[in-house]
Amino acid sequence: MGHALPQPCFPVFHCWQPLAVVGHSVGRFLSCARHRWKPVQERIMNLPDLDKVIHERARFRILACLMARRDRKCSFTDLRDMLELTGGNLSSQLSVLEEKKLVHIEKRFEGKKPLTEISLTIEGERAFSEYLETLDQLIRTLKSESADASANAGNLSRGSQRRHE
């Protein structure tokens, strides 16, 4: 009626809608998701970036397998079979990890049989642990925000029910 609507975020989409849809008086407004989630976005954006080298699925699985082993070592063939990767794919992924000094690749012979052994370096352990910690922080932030949003939605619906009783 006499309420001036704020300018929308994007000219095509209206980012303000009456809160009446969630049980509040029509005179108040709910902003768009972009504005509601701004605090979440800021917290997520302030987290350290996930390591792009580790984040690739095959490389993550390689490092996870090596971390899970007591001696942090595995033969090329065992790793290939465990991860169900082709030899070429495993080789190229290991080259990337070795270039970043996250794994050490040792090639030798046992008798006349070639053996390639991959081991996690100290730098690799540290980087993988930091990656997991960053991922954990991200998950905790999202869970916290999800719980807050659920609680707020519950409060809004309870308020609506009380008015209609």
Describe the model.
- The chain is of the alpha+beta class and 165 residues long.
- Among the domains are: 1-36, no CATH class; 52-126, Orthogonal Bundle (Arc Repressor Mutant, subunit A), CATH 1.10.10.
- The chain has helices at 33-36, 38-45, 52-55, 57-68, 76-83, 87-99, 122-164; strands at 17-18, 29-30, 73-75, 103-110, 113-120.
- Strand 4 (103-110) and strand 5 (113-120) form a beta hairpin.
- The longest helix has 43 residues, at 122-164.
- The two termini are 27 Å apart.
N/C terminus separation: 27 Å
- CATH class call of the domain at 52-126: Mainly Alpha
- Major sheet: size, sense and barrel closure? 3 strands, antiparallel
Strand order of the largest sheet: 3-5-4
Estimate what percentage of residues fall within beta strands. 5-15%
Order of helices and strands: EEHHHHEHHEEH
Number of helices: 7
Radius of gyration, taken over Cα atoms and rounded to an integer in Å: 26 Å
CATH topology of the domain at 52-126: Arc Repressor Mutant, subunit A
Compute the number of strand runs: 5
Mean pLDDT over the residues: 78
Could you state the oligomeric state of the chains shown? single chain
The CATH homologous superfamily name of the domain at 52-126 equals Winged helix-like DNA-binding domain superfamily/Winged helix DNA-binding domain
**Uncertain residue ranges:** 10-30
CATH architecture of the domain at 52-126: Orthogonal Bundle
Sheet/helix structural class? alpha+beta
Helix proportion range: 55-70%
Question: Rough shape?
Answer: elongated
